[in-house]
Amino acid sequence: MAAESPTILATSIGMQSRQRGPLDFRAGPIFKLAVELARPSATPRLCVVATAVGDASDYLRGAYAALTALDVRVSHLNLFPMPNVEDVRAHLLGQDVIWVGGGSVVNLLAVWRAHGLDRILHDCWQAGVVLGGVSAGSLCWHVGGTTDSFGPNLQPVTNGLGWLPYANGVHFDSEPQRRPLLHQLVAEGSLPTAYATDDGVGLVYRATEMTEVVAELEGKAAYLIERSESGVNEARLPPRLLA
Question: Is 135 a catalytic residue?
């Protein structure tokens, strides 16, 4: 089985630290939701893509350790220094969930395009593989957003994959530059209508429609940011709290 329609889970939710060491993480309920959306008919297959951190081995070890608590078959896709699987397309189309980690969205987009991974992932999306991710792994599916890929002063990114015809804001409550810059970019027309998430919040898209806001933490929200005559309007979107 596969997702009922092309599905993307775009979040500001990563692995949760258990504070026992630098690689001691747990996979929170957002990963269970991703699997549920995929409607697997057997043990779910989940592939971790860590392009945004250059396929860092520490990140991948932490992800494997966290995901062992779930009843899933975990794999990963490396592109540095070369793909670690013989047939990238077949491997990814054989997954139920593809989870894209955070890091540099600018580098991620460039490397994906160089390898043709953007086209492969689009085919996966259309085939019912659930695409999910955090931060850069959220921004990438949209038209663009704000990024620290170039340094600590945030800059626009406007060449996202654009399958979702919106801008995206991540870490909206924890990084003070995010909100004003996204407001400015939407107000001036550099980016379209945007959906943004506080840390701990995710957006469920079916096809290109945002259908649900979910959260792992209480008191958090998502936001709809639209251009208006006076600049922008921001509307708070309350989430469904995941167990």
Answer: yes
**SS3 state at 11:** strand
Nearest alpha carbon to residue 214 among 7, 11, 28: 11
- Domain membership of residue 1 (yes or no) is no
Residue 33 has a pLDDT of 97
Catalytic residue among 104, 135, 138, 149: 135
CATH of the domain at 153: 3.40.50.880
What is the pLDDT averaged over residues 10-32?
79
Are the C-beta atoms of 206 and 7 separated by less than 8 Å?
yes
Q: Using CA atoms, how far apart are residues 48 and 21, in angstroms rounded to an integer?
A: 21
Q: Is 174 a catalytic residue?
A: no
Question: What pLDDT does residue 14 have?
Answer: 85
Tell me the three state secondary structure of residue 229.
coil
Q: Which of 76, 91, 142, 171 is catalytic?
A: 171
Would you say residue 79 lies in a domain? Answer: yes
Coil, helix or strand for 114? helix
Q: Calculate ∠ Cα 77-208-71, nearest 5°.
A: 40
